[in-house]
Amino acid sequence: MNAPRENDPNELDRFKRDIDLVDYAERQGYQIKKEGKRGDWHQLEKDGEVLIVTRKDDHQVYLNTGDDRDKGSVIDFAKTRGGDGHGLNLGQVRQQLREYLNDGPAPTRAYAPAADVTRLNALPVGNPDHERQAEEDRRTRLISEVLGVKRELTDRTYLHGRGIEDQTIDSPAFQGRIFTAQQNEHKNTAFPLYNAEGLASVEQKNEHYKNLLPLPKNGIWVSHPTEGKGTQVERIIVSESAIDSLSHHQLKSGQDQKNTIYIATSGTPTEAQVALIQRVIDKQEPREVVLANDRDAGGRQFNMNYLNELHPARPLVPVAEQEAYKEPTRPVEWHATSDKYHTGLKVTYHHDSAEAGAQQVQQLSDRVSQMNGTQEAGPTIALEVQRSSDRETVLRLSVAKADTAQLEVLTHELYRQREQLRPEPERQQETFLRVDYPVAKDWNRDLELTRQGLNAEQIRAQAQRDEQQREVERQQRLAEQHRQEQEQRQLARQQEQQRRENTPAAQEQREADDRRFNQAVLGAAVASAGAEPDPRPFRSYQSEQEAAAHTAQFVHARDAGLVLLKEYINDNPAPTGRKVDETEQQENRDRARYAERNPAPALATVPAAEEKTATWKIDEVAPNTTGRAEAWKEVLDNSSYSYKTSEIRSTIDEQGIRRAEFDMTYRNDQPDIAIIHAIITNTNARAEAGQEVYAGVSVSESEADRAARQVVAEAAAIQPHNRDRTMDQASATPAAEGSPGHRAAEAVPAPQGDEKQVVIKVDEVAPAPGARGQAEAVKEAVAGSGAKTGDIQSTTDGQGIRHSEMKVSYRTDQPEIARISQTLDAVASQQGSSVIEHSSDRAERREISKGYEMAQPQRTQEITR
């Protein structure tokens, strides 16, 4: 069958009819959170975005509850969200939806059956006025439940907690614009939102609580003029929240006493709210509009869109027998959007000819090239011409969210370019729209820091620390999300592995392996009991060649590891307990204890290879016996493998059964990690299988440690156990002069490194006199990693915050470079701590550290061969 033509309109209709929009959205990462009882609607969510999917005629449509411009069919959904959030043109949408249908989409979702037409004909004809009245009644009921009958501000606790003073609250601007909402014993501060019909919704706030009534977001919070009702307004200030408006007034009204109206949108402005703000401008005719949104990517995005959408008061012109506002011409318009990682700006030029359009686009392209050329890390702004004709050219610019300010600069230039292209009577005065950013993230944070006595420079420094802390928290959230995704992938792999292992062929293979292995173990047991020896007796290896030949018969590392462990069980006294008398039993009770494990310090250096711990738990099989744990520990200690065991901890229960445990510590970078993995894994497997010698024996560990060890063990070669264990650390400790290791070291000259300098800063609540603070802990950790540290220089400000800094130096050719690098990264992730170094130095030490970590196991294996 031939593919549909690019311009086939029937194909778009087929997409709408045949594609289940809910299933398509789920494949883009959206999740169903709610749905109608009859299946007539679905609520989807992703990254805080809420969509409602319903049916219209013969296809499904969606609506974004946070942006009433974002709605439509599956065509609009794919067009807006395709291209990793950058959007797709219609041709790209066709291609993507064809691929979806070719992949075999889910059957069309079964919505509730249509009502019986004959039954509908028997009902009264619907009246749109009745529907509007029902919605009005619902809105009135919800608002009345929040504000009550008597609407007044009776509780100022929340406002005082946010630093808002009574003088600000009592300003004429805010009378009747803030109320107390009381539900049962709870009191919240309520900010009403208004539209042309009156009260539209209510936002409630309290400490750790924020709620906007579930009504269409088509109202704005708007104050009275600061000089009272009926006065001529000179300025309108637009912000994201009413709290920011109050904070801005408290901070700045004394400096500039223009008669002002404050407007807030309670978060992301919708299209209806922007239209309302323009209506207020039309009515009040202010001389300027100040955009006072947050100093972050979201606030900059709002300001970019306001620059495109807000205009001086529009004149009324007659239309038929009515009047309407005259819209200004738009030779250039733009709209900013964002996704999880990027901010995009869609720019549309309207022109009289292709040549005029090319000239205008070239002007913008040159400016983008100029800005990209000044970035130290390389170009940051991507520009793409999406379509062009004689009358219109559409471009899309995109930056990382952290670089949103660069798009804002371009928006201001587009604003000036638009005014130049407009007819002179329509041009705005240059100062009509003005941006006013807080020093910190938002105006309420500025107010909080100002009330603490900080000046502008100190507020700016604190804002940087706040931003660093938010970045740390963001990275932690991303790390947690990454960890959860890894766990989900690991679980999926395990389920797939279990599915494969449960096939008849896999079970048959396992049974054959077990029979062969059990025969080998039985032969060893018979030989040790004095029976006729097996032609291939088990014994300790006398040479590496013998070990290699012996282990080659086993396909899986787990079998080889268990045989090696079994040999020690057969060559040494059996790990069983011995009977004790009443006196010794009482002594055992008196000595029984589980040693307390020391908690990890608040800040610890990260070793080049992290030690893992597996806890062996060994119960006596009969009352009043002891020694079984000691026998097992001796078997492990005599194996000459690279793990270490701790002292034995034990208790005795009421039945006289001794329960003991000890820790086995190991590192995943050791050459014998495959054998260690086999010993731990098969000990548990044989104990669960009911083998007598393993009764009451188990090895416990974290799932993360087990999974990490398995990955390393699968990639490692099986190493013989009777090598010289002193060589394990050959790469980390200097060899004695004259030794082979020393001569080998001389043969490979050490690379020449550079000395690097960093500064570590620590901000903390000042510790009590003589007490050890975080700065001292950081210095000890950094010095312990192998770096050189200078003296701590500290000052304490008026708020009791101690600001410390120390100089640190290290060389890139130090053997401890991996540990130094990891320690510096650990310090940087600590709350209140920061590591100041050149970005190239940071990248270099991390790269060198990575090389050390990758090379370390390989060098150790080469020495042991």
What does this structure look like?
By secondary structure, the protein is an alpha+beta fold. Among the domains are: 10-101, no CATH class; 454-494; 611-715, Alpha-Beta Plaits; 755-854, 2-Layer Sandwich (Alpha-Beta Plaits), CATH 3.30.70.260. It is 41% helix and 21% strand. It is built from 26 helices and 32 strands. A hairpin with a 4-residue loop joins strand 30 and strand 31. Helix 9 (242-252) packs across helix 14. The model is unreliable at 1-5, 111-126, 521-564, 566-574, 595-608, 719-751 and 857-865 (pLDDT under 50).
Shape: globular
Q: Which CATH class of the domain at 611-715 is shown? A: Alpha Beta
User: How would you write the strand order of the largest sheet?
Assistant: 1-2-3-4-5
Count of DSSP H/I helices: 26
The CATH homologous superfamily of the domain at 611-715: ACT domain
- Uncertain stretches: 1-5, 111-126, 521-564, 566-574, 595-608, 719-751, 857-865
CATH level-two architecture of the domain at 611-715 = 2-Layer Sandwich
Biased composition (Basic and acidic residues): 463-514, 578-592, 838-850
Protein name: Toprim-like
Region (Disordered): 461-514, 526-545, 571-592, 719-754, 781-808, 829-865
Organism: Hymenobacter psychrophilus
Topology:
Elements: H1 9-18, H2 21-27, E1 31-35, E2 41-46, E3 49-56, E4 59-64, E5 71-72, H3 74-81, H4 90-102, H5 117-121, H6 128-147, H7 157-161, H8 166-169, E6 179-183, E7 186-195, E8 198-206, E9 209-212, E10 221-222, E11 235-239, H9 242-252, E12 260-264, H10 271-284, E13 288-291, H11 297-309, E14 316-319, E15 322-325, E16 332-338, E17 342-350, H12 354-373, E18 382-388, E19 392-400, H13 404-421, E20 433-435, H14 443-451, H15 456-501, H16 504-528, H17 544-551, H18 557-571, E21 578-579, H19 582-591, E22 611-619, E23 625-626, H20 628-637, E24 644-645, E25 649-652, E26 658-667, H21 673-688, E27 697-700, H22 703-715, H23 740-747, E28 755-765, H24 774-785, E29 788-789, E30 793-796, E31 801-811, H25 817-828, E32 833-836, H26 839-864
Parallel strand pairs: 11-12, 11-13, 13-20
Antiparallel strand pairs: 1-2, 2-3, 3-4, 4-5, 6-7, 7-8, 8-9, 10-12, 14-15, 16-17, 17-19, 18-19, 21-23, 22-26, 22-27, 24-26, 25-26, 28-31, 28-32, 29-31, 30-31
Helix pairs in contact: 1-4, 9-14, 11-13, 16-18, 18-21, 21-22, 24-25, 25-26
